Amino acid sequence: MWDYSEKVKDHFFHPRNVGEIANPDAVGEVGSLACGDALKLMLKLDETGRIVDVKFKTFGCGSAIASASALTEMIKGKTLEEAGKITDSDIAAYLDGLPEQKMHCSVMGREALEAAIANYRGVKIEKPVDEGTIVCKCFGVTDNKIAHEVREHKLTTIEQVTNFCKAGGGCRSCHPQIQAIIDEVWQKEKEKALIEKVRKPVKKLTNIQKMKLVQETIERDIRPTLQSDGGDIELIDMDGDRVMVSFRGSCAECPSSKVTLKSTVEAKLREFVTDTLIVEEVAS
Residues 113, 180: one domain? Predict the structure, then answer.
């Protein structure tokens, strides 16, 4: 038996704002009877764009009724911009929580609100999450929708996916595909995090700081390598991001000095100082 909060019970047994608005300014409809849940949300706005009346009709379970009722209370008196910031998590929190298995009811409320706002503004909602390949045939849920819910709510199990979008809650034959989507989403997130971690932002340095770091990098990471082959390097001058150096010893006459300049000297300075540096060899 699911554990419902007192607020959920109150909004289920005594739902607010049930019914229809004559000539509404905005209408949002989501879900379908075939999938077991459907919600119609109607809004009336005043001349300032503030929601002065809201009504709903829904076909669904007690949590669906409670979520829709709570949503109407939350948005009444708000502007469309203010109402549009309400999330499904906000709806659940307003009800002092929903059973995990019923989180899709608050999601349906948020989607109905998004649809109503789009309807008022005369725009078509671009929802790539509803496009793609149908994974859950029982409830008509696409791979893009599943991936979206996994990312947005940090879902890691098939059961959690079912709670938020109903996918996998029917015959369960789609469970392997849902698991594959979960794995793919988090693998991509790991790769993205790794890229962000290793990506080194351009450092904002003063000229003195920059010159000091250049000199330290030469002493620590460049000079020992060159000296091991009988060569050496000297920092001659700096002008902004231009670093002027001169080779010494065997490096001065080496035919590969231009390659060394870029592949070793410039590469190391860009790695440890800033990636905007340009190294040039000058006579001294």
Answer: no
